[in-house]
Amino acid sequence: MSFLPDYLDWHYQKVLFKLLLLWRNLTLFPMYYFSVGLHLKTLLSPWKKQTIRMKPGFHLEDFMGVVSFNIISRIMGLILRGTVISYGIFFFFFLGIIGFLPTLLWCLIPFLTIPIYLKRKLPLDSIVSEMLKKSQNSLKNLALLMLSHRVAQDIFWRLGLNPLVLKTSLGTKADPGNYPAFWEKYSANSKNMGFNQLVFKVIDIYEPLKNIISDNNLKLGDVEHTASWVEKLSLLKNIPMIWDLKKIKSMAGIGVDWAYGFTVEFDKYSRDLTKLNITYPFLVGREEELEKMQRILMKTDSNNILIIGDPGVGRHILVETMAYRIKSGDCRPEISHKRILSLSMHSLISSKPSVLEVKGIASEIIEEASNAGNIFVMIDDIDKFVATGEGRIDLTDVLMKFTDSDIGFIGITDSIAYHKFIETNSELDRSFEKIYLHPPSMDILIEELELSIVPVLERKHKMFITYPSVKKTIEDAEKYITTTPFPGKAIELMDQSAVYAKTRCNSRVLQPVHIDQFIAEKLSLPLGEIKASEKDRLLNIEKIMHQRVVNQEKAIDAVASAIRRSRLGISSDKKPVGTFLFLGPTGVGKTETAKALAHAYFGDENNMLRFDMGAYQKEEGLERLIGSIKIGSPGELTSRLRDRPFSLILLDEIEKADKQIYNLFLTLIDEGYITDYLGHKIFAKNAIIIATSNAGAEFIRQSLTKGIAGDELKKTLLDFVQKENIYSPEFLNRFDEVVVFTPLTEGQMREVARLMLEKLNKRLSAKEISIEITPDLIRNLASFGYDPQFGARSMNRTITEKIENQIAIKMLEGNVKKGEAIKINL
Predict the structure, then answer these.
(1) Can you name the CATH fold of 442-529?
(2) pLDDT tens, position by position, 431-474
(3) Does domain 746-822 have CATH number 1.50.10.10?
């Protein structure tokens, strides 16, 4: 009977306390279920606020009609409320007596409950002690016992490891582990050791298990975090209402809406959020904001809220969570009977042809909601309805009529629209209390994904999501999704990746590789494990580019190295992949080098965002790049970069751009983002930026004739462009590399001629013909096509005028047969 003290503690403390708690809640339940307190307060109130008023002047018939209607409405409310109150009081006494009997019986039958005690489910702390005893001083046995328990299995599944496979693998190990070292390190704490601590500590000491963790790119910190996550998930299960007095007090009992009016017309233009099934009802990290919302909404007047934040930061989820808490009773009693209605302003506006009529119907339905007495009105993008302009309508005067009532407006807007359209109206601005939403911290974000999002997505997609996948989601969302803030972009990525894993990979477990594969396919990004074909391409980028570009080894080496560093995750993820300034005369291969890189690594030279900077002058040029708020036009650079964040950006002949545009590129080149006309950041952290310039072309030619070349030429050229105020030092220093392109030699021109002729043959292959490329043709083309001022660029004109024209004439004369190599004379 050594267990007797523990048994008596269990019987008379733990279980008896729960029985007393259950008795109390069971007794009080009818009082709140039948809304006894509320009905007593409103016992003589009109039924559903149904009253009528007298018309102006005194008319006996009108007076009698009003009095009789209002009396009947109050009598009807009295009868219904009185009936419900009677039921509530009856069940209060009935359940109080019924609930007391088992509690009393439990106190009178000690020792008869010993079989229940012995069969009870042991707490995890007791299981740790049992495992330590059964391990026979062997870490291997302790690890196997641990892996047999459901909680440990849950932890390893969440780590992305199969506990059954682990158990089998460890069973074949001869190493019993250093149990004395384990005991020496943790014996002082063994009595207080929880199960999660046991898992962590066994892995920390038992080398075979520790090596498995390490081999799967996991750390001890990951194990500790995952164990904590599993524990928190187990606590997330909804406690039945009968055990939670707070929920009982806040529940929507019978007839709670009898004291409030109908909203027949308002319902036509709105959705009741308190009746919807909320997608993500358990919100993490916004308790302060939710508490502030409740405090504001509890006010008797001026209880208006303006939620300010960028789309994706969780504005709508915050309101939906508030609605869910009202619905489930997890809120302050003062607002537990309220409804949050989301007003569809677009439906309202489209229902009437004129602004005056829209204002009329808006005023009528908001008046109806105000009279109902239990309505909070949510208006999405409220800034669009308090100012004039394209896509906007000014209903400020309508809203201001009710801002001091108890209706309670909940407006949603972003920071830019708030400052532009709401803050400028001081009276309107003062009518709302502000709640600013910012992206959560990384710790809160991880917890939100784990506790709020993962359980919902697992039920929705019938998938299992591992901890490494949670980390990978955040990592990839931060790096590759730049248009939406956290937590929105992480939620969207996890949801889409789960669908991808299930439908494309036929997997029921979301792994990090699935997230990489989804991102790679969606954004045309090379992600994940480097396959043999890509490895070969990375190692031979220089060789592939030299198939199109002659000479210019320095430039090709620089861009190829940047690509390799980025793909292997070595370079900084805070800046673009690489930023380069190509200086040199026309026709030496600057633009062709950029095209060759786009072809070699991005698969197609069309995967290059090219901007001829001479076309962007003064303020109009700046507006064309980043957009114009005057006409609401998006920018060419910002739009294309937003659509294709993984690309090569070519800023051709940048010296022709207006000087104020240089300031725009300073941030883009140095920090990897650009700000559009609305103030939104568009990131270029996955892009390569190449700027070309003909500045100093004549200086290069003169320097070469003086024998200045190599690094000395680069140094003197940079000094020259700074002294001439062509480029500032701060602009030049932003680039990873400034590469000087020199004029081509005669031999290099012949090589360019050969490449151009081969390119022509590739086009002619569609006609099943070709030209015969001979040394004489190459030499003559290089001679005719070379121009000291325009370099190899004039060679294209020579090919068009002297070769393609000959081919066209021969084809028209019928002198060309399919498969024939045409001889060309220059």
Answers:
(1) Helicase, Ruva Protein; domain 3 (1.10.8)
(2) 999 999 999 999 999 999 999 999 999 999 999 999 999 999 99
(3) no
pTM: 0.84
Confidence of residue 2 (pLDDT cuts 50, 70, 90): low
CATH architecture, domain 269-436: 3-Layer(aba) Sandwich (3.40)
| Of residues 740, 689, 688, the one with CA closest to residue 714 | 740
pLDDT digits (tens, 9 = 90+) for 492-530: 999 999 999 999 999 999 999 999 999 989 887 787 778
The 8-class DSSP code of residue 209 comes to H
What are the structural domain ranges in the chain?
4-119, 132-235, 269-436, 442-529, 533-740, 746-822
Q: Do domains 442-529 and 746-822 have the same CATH topology?
A: yes
Q: Which residues contact 499 (CB under 8 A, 6 or more apart)?
A: 461
How far apart, in whole angstroms, are the C-alpha atoms of residue 363 and residue 302? 17
Question: Which residues make Cβ contacts (< 8 Å) with residue 582, sequence separation at least 6?
Answer: 555, 590, 593, 594, 690, 691, 692, 693, 739, 741
The pairing of beta strand 339-343 with beta strand 409-413 = unpaired
Superfamily of domain 533-740: P-loop containing nucleotide triphosphate hydrolases (3.40.50.300)
Q: What does the radius of gyration of the chain's CA atoms come to, in whole angstroms?
A: 38
Query: Taking Cα atoms as reference points, which of 639, 636, 646, 738 lies closest to residue 684?
Result: 646
**Residue located via tokens 């459901």:** 150
- Which residue's structure tokens are 């929705």? 460
Q: Cβ neighbours of residue 391 under 8 Å, at least 6 residues apart? A: 384
The tokens of 662 are what? 């240089």
What pLDDT is attached to residue 125?
A: 65
What does the block give as tokens for 330? Answer: 């997890």
How does pLDDT run across 192-212, given as a tens digit for each residue?
A: 678 888 898 899 999 999 999
Sort strands 633-634 and 648-652 into parallel, antiparallel or unpaired.
unpaired
- What gap in Å lies between CA 327 and CA 338, rounded to an integer? 9
